[in-house]
Amino acid sequence: MTDKPRVLFVEDNVGKRYVIARQLRAAGFDIDEATTGQEGLGLLSPKHDVAIIDVKLPDMFGWDLCKRIKSNPDTSFVKVLELSATLATAEDRARGLELGADCYLVHPVELVELVAALRALIRLRNAERDRLRAQELLLATLGHDLRNPLNVIATGLSALADSSNLSDRERETVKRLDRTATRMHRMIEQVMVVAQTLGGDIVPVSRTHIDLGELLSQVVHDTRTSTKHNIEVSVTLADKVLGDADKLNRLIDNLIVNAIRHGDGAVSVSLGRDNDRAVLVVRNGGAAIPPELIDKLFDPYTRSSRSAGAGLGLYIVKQVARAHGGTVAVTSNAEGTAFTVSLPIA
Known about the structure:
Number of domains: 3
CATH superfamily of the largest domain: Histidine kinase-like ATPase, C-terminal domain
Helix content: 40-55%
CATH architecture of the largest domain: 2-Layer Sandwich
CATH topology of the largest domain: Heat Shock Protein 90
Number of helices: 10
Distance between the termini: 33 Å
Radius of gyration: 25 Å
CATH class of the largest domain: Alpha Beta
Low-confidence stretches: none
């Protein structure tokens, strides 16, 4: 972030844009200029504090541009101020705000009012940054402080499991405690990923050539040891992907665990190739997910009544896929639900 507040100004009227941009620069703002919505999207970055958008652009309406800004995880926190000289009624202003704008002003607007509105939005943006930093620090500290005692517990359980003096009942208790410790370790790792991404950052990954089919087989084998659920696997991918084995392991594990928890019957997992992409599909049976919940599935802390977790699994799947240049999508109907992850082939 620069010392000056950074603002994107999207306006197709060259004269109007020149005058306003010049005034705002004199008022202490760092201004990037664009003529169309597409050009604005190309310039917009997480470093921008506010986007000023003319409502009537050559290629789209300002509220359509606003929707695209807000729906992109990288820019969703950028504040949007819409300006219009023609759509100036109370209904127009209400529509702009209902569709996601943070502020709506009508031309001709006095410079003092525009500057005051920008500074108010920037104060909100800075307050959000401070809150996210506090959350990141709390989660990172919590994860770090829980790791050490959990490692001690896991080491102690491993030593107990090797003892020849345990009864069958005691040995089963040690196994149950070990499974619980493993689940706690997974939860801590999930929290650490959330701490890394709350501010819009991408999960850091170390990249090596990975046999995704082999990784999938390992995850399925480990899952089968802790559940009686039937998991069907089909692998036709022969190519490798370039990525982080630990994080891709977590992605696959989260999808399979999610399918087991929320579905009925067998879980099917397929891994194949589509052009230059590796495609992983995890399916389960059961009732369809309501359409109004589909868009929320990948939000953090989203969970159903059947879930015993913290609601971070699918959020982390999306963040790990994003960090690898991939995507994740979901389809759901009366026959069941399918999550599809697409990753670039190495």
